[in-house]
């Protein structure tokens, strides 16, 4: 079979990204223009600023992705783009750009689900990984346990009832004065803290053994901080961070392993920004080794938002015959 080159475009939140991927697996280029510096000034992502930055950067980012891959737009087989879920104004920039390029260059257009892209990030560095497998998707907006039945067939086994895991990391980081983005900062300071210093809750959902809830642990941290302030006790940022992280990691790893055992899945993949968390990786590795379950996760650069993962998923949809029409639109709350 001839090589298939996909140009991926991603703009669902605060990264403007473009990438060229060969046959769904080999990254020829992966360009990411991050807006973190500007959103840090506001303590979180400001949607309108995100859209404005995307429109400013997107052409440059795509040009660079083609250049680094040493290909022209003519050599690309199809253009894949994230069309949801995400911030509507941010998504529209990528979708509009992808449609214009596909129309002008007479290329097929493939709209990709952002979370399915996060899952596909695992294909980029694990050539032997093929469905079926269980995927723990943990990002800023999503916490899902997904049974990946085929490259384009997914079943949600569990999901969060309130905050996403990454959202809880970001909120707790802000409360203890670490700032935005919280996940990587909590990960770092936790290394100096005692994960057993404070007992934060690990919520269970009655009647839904693989679902999650993180608003309780977040409130427990806020209560703890208020209590300390009232009593004039100086908190240890590292102990609070490590204890909070321990609680989240216990729940994520515990549910993922339990679901894999119940479903008879022999392989767990992890995806999304929180998959970069070192404590989560370590715990899952230990638990999977004990249970004889294979574990894989992407390098940190492919865990957080990028377009290589969108090109990877786009490839599998393209070869399965999926095509988006010229009426493709952004769908901010797109379901898997
Ligand atoms: O997947 P992603 O880049 O964007 C979304 O689609 O949401 O995930 C971003 C989330 C943020 O909440 C960020 O704090 C979290 O991933 N994150 C981490 C780490 N790196 C990023 N959380 C915990 N530990 C990390 N090392
Ligand atoms: Zn994401």
UniProtKB/TrEMBL annotation:
GO terms for molecular function: tRNA N(6)-L-threonylcarbamoyladenine synthase activity. Signal peptide: none annotated. Fe cation binds at residues 114, 118, 305. Its EC number is 2.3.1.234. It catalyses: L-threonylcarbamoyladenylate + adenosine(37) in tRNA = N(6)-L-threonylcarbamoyladenosine(37) in tRNA + AMP + H(+). It is an enzyme of class 2 (transferase). Residues 26-311 form the Gcp-like domain. CDD domains: ASKHA_NBD_TsaD_bac. It is found in: Cytoplasm. Belongs to the KAE1 / TsaD family. Coiled coil: none annotated. PANTHER family: TRNA N6-ADENOSINE THREONYLCARBAMOYLTRANSFERASE, TRNA N6-ADENOSINE THREONYLCARBAMOYLTRANSFERASE, MITOCHONDRIAL. Its main location: cytoplasm. Binds 1 Fe(2+) ion per subunit. HAMAP family: TsaD. Its cofactor is Fe(2+). The keyword Cytoplasm applies. Required for the formation of a threonylcarbamoyl group on adenosine at position 37 (t(6)A37) in tRNAs that read codons beginning with adenine. Is involved in the transfer of the threonylcarbamoyl moiety of threonylcarbamoyl-AMP (TC-AMP) to the N6 group of A37, together with TsaE and TsaB. TsaD likely plays a direct catalytic role in this reaction. Keywords: Acyltransferase, Cytoplasm, Iron, Metal-binding, Transferase, tRNA processing. InterPro entries: ATPase_NBD (IPR043129), Gcp-like_dom (IPR000905), KAE1/TsaD (IPR017861), TsaD (IPR022450). Substrate binds at residues 137-141, 170, 183, 187, 277. This is tRNA N6-adenosine threonylcarbamoyltransferase. The keyword Metal-binding applies.
């Amino acid at each position: 079979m001839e090589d298939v080159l996909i140009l991926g475009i991603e703009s669902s939140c605060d990264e403007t990204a473009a990438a060229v991927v060969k046959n769904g697996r080999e990254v020829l280029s992966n360009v990411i223009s991050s807006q973190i510096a500007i959103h840090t000034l506001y303590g979180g992502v400001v949607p309108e600023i995100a859209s404005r930055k995307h429109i400013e950067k997107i052409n440059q980012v795509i040009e660079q992705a083609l250049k680094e891959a040493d290909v022209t737009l003519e050599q690309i087989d199809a253009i894949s783009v994230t069309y949801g879920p995400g911030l509507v104004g941010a998504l529209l920039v990528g979708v509009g750009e992808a449609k214009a390029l596909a129309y002008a260059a007479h290329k097929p257009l493939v709209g990709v689900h952002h979370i399915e892209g996060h899952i596909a990030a695992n294909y980029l560095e694990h050539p032997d990984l093929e469905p079926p497998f269980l995927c723990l998707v943990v990002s800023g907006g999503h916490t899902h346990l997904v049974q990946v039945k085929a490259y384009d067939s997914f079943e949600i086994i569990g999901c969060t009832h309130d905050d996403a895991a990454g959202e809880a990391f970001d909120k707790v980081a802000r409360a203890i004065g670490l700032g935005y983005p919280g996940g990587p900062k909590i990960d770092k300071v936790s290394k100096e803290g005692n994960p057993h210093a404070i007992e934060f809750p690990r919520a269970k959902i009655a009647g839904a053994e693989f679902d999650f809830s993180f608003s309780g642990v977040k409130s427990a941290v806020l209560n703890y901080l208020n209590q300390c302030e009232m009593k004039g006790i100086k908190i240890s940022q590292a102990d609070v961070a490590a204890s909070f992280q321990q609680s989240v990691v216990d729940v994520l790893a515990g549910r993922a392993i339990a679901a894999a055992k119940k479903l008879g899945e022999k392989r767990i993949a992890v995806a999304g920004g929180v998959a970069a968390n070192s404590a989560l990786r370590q715990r899952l590795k230990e638990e999977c080794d004990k249970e004889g379950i294979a574990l894989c996760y992407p390098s940190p650069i492919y865990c957080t938002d990028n377009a290589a993962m969108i090109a990877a998923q786009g490839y599998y949809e393209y070869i399965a015959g999926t095509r988006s029409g010229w009426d493709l639109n952004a769908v901010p709350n797109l379901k898997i």
